[in-house]
């Protein structure tokens, strides 16, 4: 009897060992899982914080729009064609081909309709001081601006009209309408060439205002308040002769017109 009791207690003891070990193992697993959950929650919290931080850093930044063009207060020369009869070529301008003044009811005012592949320069020499501003408007009358090739404007050393583009260019701006958004600024005087983008496509049947500010050698050029150049384009020369040249190609009845030309200086 005593022996059987002893064997029973011994068997219970021996059986309890693995049960106890199994119980402790389960408790250990639970603790480890709980700890892992806590660590994961902390890490996830940091990730969320980082995500929020990244989201905040990606929020749109509003930049100040600066238009620092300051027109002169004293007019040197102005030409808006208002007194010119429709169909006539303005006497203040000379050309390699032809041109005619027209009225545009939808926009108002009178405009010089430029011939194809034609350059326009002033008939008389005007005095450009060291610091001056020059402004004019360009209008593309077309279904699409890429019906045109490139338009040029700038300064030359001579005032001849022997060719479409002068070999004596000092510097020029080039609007590549055929590419919709390409513009170039180049200076032979400074051996400089700059290419950038500007949305020309939206200017079909819309006026573009061009503003140029010259301070000795440095030139700023703006298209509708967007600065496209701010660099030295002269090389100690004095500005002599302004020119504007119409595109070589004007398809599907597309035409370029300009008006409201004015040169000013500061008193």
Keywords:
single chain; 267 residues; alpha+beta; Jelly Rolls; 7-stranded antiparallel β-sheet; 1 helix; globular
Beta-strand level of the residues, as a percent range?
35-45%
Q: Give average pLDDT, whole number.
A: 85
**Shape verdict:** globular
- The count of helical stretches stands at 1
Report the CATH architecture of the largest domain.
Sandwich
Low-confidence parts: none
Largest sheet at a glance? 8 strands, antiparallel
User: What's the structural domain tally?
Assistant: 2
What is the CATH topology classification name of the largest domain? Jelly Rolls
- The number of distinct β-strands equals 15
Helix content: 10-25%
Helical/strand content category:
alpha+beta
Round the Cα radius of gyration to an integer and report it. Answer: 38 Å
H-E string = HEEEEEEEEEEEEEEE
* Terminal residue distance: 130 Å
CATH class identity of the largest domain: Mainly Beta
InterPro entries: ConA-like_dom_sf (IPR013320)
Protein name: 3-keto-disaccharide hydrolase domain-containing protein
Keywords: Signal
